[in-house]
Amino acid sequence: MTRGFSESAFGHAITAAGVTHSVARACAAGRLYNCSCGMVRGKRAWKWSGCHDNTKFGARYSRRFLDVRERAKDVISFTHLYNNEVGRKVVRRNREVRCKCHGMSGSCEVRTCWKAAPDFRRVGDMLKEKYTRAMSAAVEVFGNSANTARKYRPVRREISPDSPLLFVERSPTYCERDTRLAVVGTTGRYCNRNSTGPDSCDTLCCGRGYDQRHEVVNRKCQCRFKWCCEVTCKDCFEEKWVSVCK
């Protein structure tokens, strides 16, 4: 998270989005004493009812909680602050209208509607898409001169949900061990030989192949709750074949 890789950009963005989302929902649910329901702008706001998720307060809290650590005016700090704000904007600008019907026998004679923060799975998908299209900060913002970052701070109004994530350093392959970058590599990683997704042996093992190994796994089973308040379990041993990257 302290480096300028595109993975760091995604990590900062989704962390900021997560804080914004959680605080906004907590405000609407009345779980926080210092905030309340969110507001909806516009002449037709009087038609709204229910309690809107307070994404404005959530974003403000996220800035106070996360951005305060980024004081140094260098290109790394700039991109961290920028990516934080992209994550918040994705939550704030993608609020959804949700409604609840009231009436006899399930009829919808009266309907209560409110603005809710998007499902966080959707937020994650949008940020994942931005991760795949991340751009170099030096080219996108500073015109190939990273030193000019010392003159800039991210301007919130210029960042939109459509803004890309920014990175400073090209990501390593993560396939081979690199102690300088704290990359452990994928040798010895468990993989799924029957998968075609990111956990597949073809993907994780980086073309090196994998070994099949027989292991005995200890797992908790037959758990019982004892009043009060203890859970006791037995140890069960399971034999299985696993795939491990070479």
TrEMBL record:
GO cellular component: extracellular space
Organism: Petrolisthes manimaculis
Protein name, entry field: Protein Wnt
Keywords (A to Z) from UniProt: Developmental protein, Disulfide bond, Extracellular matrix, Lipoprotein, Secreted, Wnt signaling pathway
Family: Belongs to the Wnt family.
Location of the protein in the cell: Secreted, Extracellular space, Extracellular matrix
High-level lineage: Eukaryota, Metazoa, Ecdysozoa, Arthropoda, Crustacea
UniProt-listed GO biological process terms: canonical Wnt signaling pathway; cell fate commitment; cell morphogenesis; muscle organ development; neuron differentiation
Lineage: superkingdom: Eukaryota
Main localization (coarse): secreted
A GO MF label: frizzled binding
Function: Ligand for members of the frizzled family of seven transmembrane receptors.
